[in-house]
Write a structure and sequence with these properties.
By secondary structure, the chain is an alpha/beta fold. It contains 31 helices and 29 strands. Strands 3-14-15-11-10-4-7-6-5 form a nine-stranded mixed beta sheet. Strands 19-16-20-21-23-22-27 form a seven-stranded mixed beta sheet, sandwiched between helices. A five-stranded mixed beta sheet has the order 24-26-25-28-29, sandwiched between helices. α21 packs parallel to α26 (754-767). The model is unreliable at 1-8 and 53-69 (pLDDT under 50).
Length: 941
């Protein structure tokens, strides 16, 4: 509490005679059955204990027949009024700069509670406060004080917060006068100077680069003041890294004034002069670049403050809120210590995430609630995110009544018990206090908090847009409204802190600073050699050669250790038998998919690479194939065998994720960017579930390296395969990933062998932290997880490497007889292998499994085809419909490989759905395509 709070007399002094007796009786009831007591009285009992008279004598209980009358009813009504002010005062608050929304006072008027000023004056102030503010002498003063703090430039919604300690802390902050603390004179001058630079920056661009889009933040200029204060408070709390996410509006001002991208460097982007000519030499600003680039209001930066705290603004596409999980994933990575074996050591105090949202987007886009749902989940918590709604009261051209069904755009947050603070963006000093408060709350309680910064948008959606066409009334008000810099300057003049001439001088000096920076750009223009960035040489290598073999002795020891449980741990009986079979499988060449995967992870953490694995039901595996986390059948205690591997030099964690794809994929992508040495793996429950994360693949994962120079080694496992389970559980939509494949942006792999998958994971881990790293899309199996023809031997794991192409054993030995070569990928190739058995009767046939689809192993396939001089046909076989799967992607390359030979497609016809929905129909179609694939070529007469 602040030092302006003093205790006064007991609230029980308001009661006498029968009323006091009734209160005593209610107190006795409260001790026995508190739920039967009126909430207001219960609150008084909780705060002040047993009723006593002012002199300290214990009151004598009245007879049970005494009825509550007079003062008691007025007191209870007054308590209801105070509660209404705390609960609904925000509806009457002065939080709209344009004053274009009515302030609703009906719920907090004395008359609504049948109270008069005289009634209130007769009630002690202690009825309303545990610690009474100075100058509050009675109930009338108390109600006036509450109205003053709850209906001013800052408004509060916190009564939905469940934990009493949090509510009490927030309430004490509000009612102690924290939000009305005056800034020191020098602080006020600094705010004015900051606002002058923020405004001058926007005005200079508007005047100098006419017609160029910048998505101005004018109308919410104090957003910079708010971020300043949050960062200053975080710095004081020894936060090491801050990660910020925001869409395009106001982004250039944040880059310039929060990330300290110099004015000349920013203006060079508008003037089409190479901005590296203006990069500061102190090394504190870091900017990555791709070779295709992006518009300036999508770019990010990383800045190291004098204290050493690193602040990063995430790169972002135009899709507004989709950066949210990316930023939170990066934030989580700043908090995780992955250097030790066993589970990750998580310390949320090390990193802070700040998300800036649009007011229409916050309730409109589901990704927002997805990330709020992360807040208390073990694998995705970041110890509290500060959400800022950059509320300009409009969405493109859409007024709020068309964009949401709630009173405030912030309302979805209340379902997650997140406190909301609304603040008038034209009140800089209030904004400062809100920034301090939010950062303190987050650090103290480790929870999310929302700041609804309410302003307006001075221009249209962009600077070429005319908003008066669609929003004439709003923009009449905007045209008449002074900027916050002008308003605050006038306020300081009124206060006698500065003169009008001094305010003008500050503005002129700020604008002159912009002009000098632009003059520098023009001077440097002659030195611009206009070089186009190129793809790194290491990324041009389509097939990185990486040693992935592991000594047999090491593998044998790992396999044994994975089957040792801690003392008194008893797995479920059936599972125990399944795991025990892995001991024999290791020596009998029957290492299945989950077994090979676990061995790969064990070797990777021994090599010093941490692993983070998430997905819906990832611990067990959707198909009960993985069992990375075991549960004691007697008490559900968890045991993770990979935490007990000897010589492990990094952490391993696997988390079952919330039931969302977009949010989790974005989170894992962000984590992989921040912790580039970690193998980050996400698994879809079924491959087609990735549909819900398509925006992440389209806007981040596929193109971020080319656009922004951001390196990720994220692994995405997408279960895929046609087994008669219907359309939605068959296809991972691999065609979409293949369509986006270019410039070696990722690997797309469809393995048919557990050993090859083992080496694939080890190859991916070895590429982490190198220029050649790229994401990995794995079209992973379901049916093959336990198929004997997909199993591996220990020898394959110990001595092999990843094979982009695998020739079918038993076929192609009679070189002259081979007339048809069948190519395909994934599970259908095992169906073919099962059909041809040892190859007897199939001399005319050879089968090539394309394990890596992108980059396509063209040279390797061509070399195999060249061995067979009498080939008449090259066939591509797939389970997927002709307009889906890999056929259209591979077609151009297959034409080249066929070199005039007949090229045929074998598979399902074009279909609008991904597969049949009936198991019998599936079996018939599958059998037909297998027969067609292995048939002898038709002889041409």
């Amino acid at each position: 509490m602040s030092n302006n709070v003093t205790p006064v007399s007991s609230p029980w002094s308001a009661f006498a005679g029968p009323n006091l007796g009734y209160v005593m009786e209610q107190y006795d009831l409260f001790l026995q059955s508190p739920e039967e007591v009126e909430p207001e009285l219960a609150l008084l009992f909780q705060q002040f204990g047993a009723p006593v008279v002012v002199e300290g004598e214990v009151a004598v209980a009245a007879s049970p027949a005494a009825a509550p009358t007079g003062d008691l009813q007025k007191t209870l009504a007054a308590i209801h009024l105070a509660d209404a002010i705390r609960r609904h005062g925000h509806l009457a608050a002065d939080i709209y700069p344009l004053n274009n929304r009515a302030r609703n006072t009906k719920q907090i008027e004395e008359s609504a509670f049948h109270l008069s000023a005289q009634d209130l004056a007769a009630i002690p102030a202690t009825v309303f406060f545990k610690d009474v503010p100075a100058n509050v002498k009675n109930g009338k003063d108390a109600i006036d004080y509450l109205k003053a703090v709850y209906t001013d430039k800052v408004a509060f919604e916190y009564r939905h917060v469940v934990v009493p300690e949090e509510r009490d802390w927030i309430q004490s902050k509000i009612e102690s006068g924290f939000f009305k603390q005056a800034q020191a004179p020098e602080s006020k001058k600094a705010i004015l100077d900051r606002l002058s630079h923020v405004e001058s920056f926007e005005k200079f661009i508007h005047k100098t680069f006419v017609g160029q889009k910048r998505f101005s933040g004018e109308g919410l200029d104090t957003q910079i003041i708010l971020l300043d204060e949050i960062l200053n408070t975080a710095e004081a709390n020894r936060v090491e890294k801050v990660r910020i996410g925001m869409a395009h509006r106001g982004r250039l001002n944040v880059l310039t004034h929060i990330l300290h991208k110099p004015y000349d460097m920013m203006f060079s982007d508008f003037a089409h002069v190479a901005n590296h000519l203006f990069m500061p030499e102190d090394g504190r600003l870091e900017i990555t670049k791709g070779w295709t680039g992006d518009v300036k209001y999508h770019m990010g930066a990383n800045y190291t403050r004098e204290s050493g705290m690193k602040v990063k603004l995430s790169y972002n596409p135009s899709h507004l809120e989709v950066a949210n999980p990316v930023v939170l994933g990066a934030t989580r990575a700043t908090q995780d210590d992955t250097t030790q074996s066993g589970p990750v050591q998580h310390d949320s105090s090390k990193g802070l995430g700040i998300l800036l949202h649009g007011d229409a987007a916050f309730p409109g886009q589901g990704i927002v609630t997805e990330v709020m749902n992360f807040a208390k989940t073990e694998g995705f918590t970041t110890g509290g995110t500060i959400h800022i709604i950059a509320n300009n009261m409009i969405g493109f051209t859409t007024e709020l009544y068309d964009s949401r069904s709630t009173v405030y755009s912030s309302d979805p947050a209340k379902g997650y018990e997140i406190p909301v603070v609304h603040v008038n963006a034209d009140s800089p000093e209030a904004v400062v206090q809100v920034g301090q408060f939010a950062a303190e709350y987050r650090q103290k309680f480790g929870k999310d908090i929302v700041i609804d910064l309410i302003g307006y948008r001075r221009h249209g959606h962009n600077e070429t847009d005319d908003p008066t066409v669609t929003n004439p009334e709003t923009y009449k008000l905007v045209a008449q409204h002074e900027t916050v810099r002008a308003l605050y300057g006038a306020q300081l003049v009124t206060e006698g802190l500065v003169t009008a001439e001094e305010v003008a001088a500050v503005d002129v000096a700020a604008y002159a600073e912009m002009q000098a920076a632009y003059d520098h750009v023009k001077e440097m223009q002659a030195q611009d050699d206009h070089q186009q960035p190129e793809m790194p040489e290491e990324l041009k290598i389509e097939f990185p050669q990486v040693k992935t073999a592991v000594a047999m002795e090491r593998l044998t020891k790992i396999n044994d250790e994975l089957l040792v449980f801690e003392e008194n741990f008893e797995p479920q009986k059936k599972l125990g038998k399944i795991l025990e079979k892995r001991r024999d499988a290791f020596t009998s060449a029957k290492i299945d998919w989950g077994h090979a995967e676990t061995l790969a992870y064990a070797t990777i953490i021994q090599d010093g690479t941490p692993i983070r694995f998430t997905g819906q039901d990832a611990q067990r595996g959707t198909f009960s194939q993985r069992h990375l986390v075991l549960h004691d059948k007697n008490n559900s205690k968890e045991f993770t065998p990979l935490h007990h591997i000897s010589d492990a030099n990094a952490s391993f964690v696997v988390y079952n994720s919330p039931l969302t794809e977009a949010g989790v994929v974005g989170f894992e992508y962000g984590y992989s960017l921040e912790k580039s040495n970690a193998l980050v793996v996400w698994e879809a429950q079924f491959g087609d579930f990735a549909n819900m994360a398509q925006v992440m693949f389209d806007n981040f994962i596929s193109g971020a390296r080319a656009k922004w120079g951001q390196k990720s080694g994220l692994v995405m496992l997408l279960p895929h395969g046609y087994e008669g389970q219907g359309p939605e559980h068959s296809s991972s939509r691999m065609e979409r990933f293949l369509q986006m494949s270019a410039e070696n942006n990722w690997f797309v792999v469809n393995c048919s062998n557990a050993g090859n998958y083992y080496h694939l994971l080890r190859r991916q881990a070895a590429l982490l932290g190198t220029e050649g790293v790229r994401p990995l899309v794995v079209v992973s199996p379901k049916y093959l997880l336990r198929h004997p023809l997909a199993a591996a031997s220990a020898e394959q794991l110990a001595t092999g490497s990843f094979q982009e192409v695998i020739e079918q054993p038993g076929l192609g030995t009679n070189v002259e007889a081979v007339e048809r070569i069948v190519l395909g990928t994934g599970k259908v190739m095992i169906d073919l292998a099962d059909h041809v058995k040892n190859g007897e009767g199939f001399d005319h046939l050879h089968i090539i499994r394309v394990e890596q689809l992108y980059p396509f192993p063209k040279a390797q396939v061509a070399a195999i085809i060249a061995k067979y001089p009498n080939v008449q046909e090259v066939v591509w076989v797939q389970e997927e419909p002709k307009n889906q799967g890999s056929w259209n992607y591979a077609l151009e390359t297959l034409y080249e490989l066929a070199e005039g030979k007949k090229l045929r497609y074998v598979g399902r016809p074009t279909m609008s759905s991904t597969s049949e929905g009936d198991a019998d129909s599936h079996k018939a179609a599958q059998a037909a395509l297998i027969e067609a694939a292995v048939a002898e070529p038709v002889k041409v007469k």
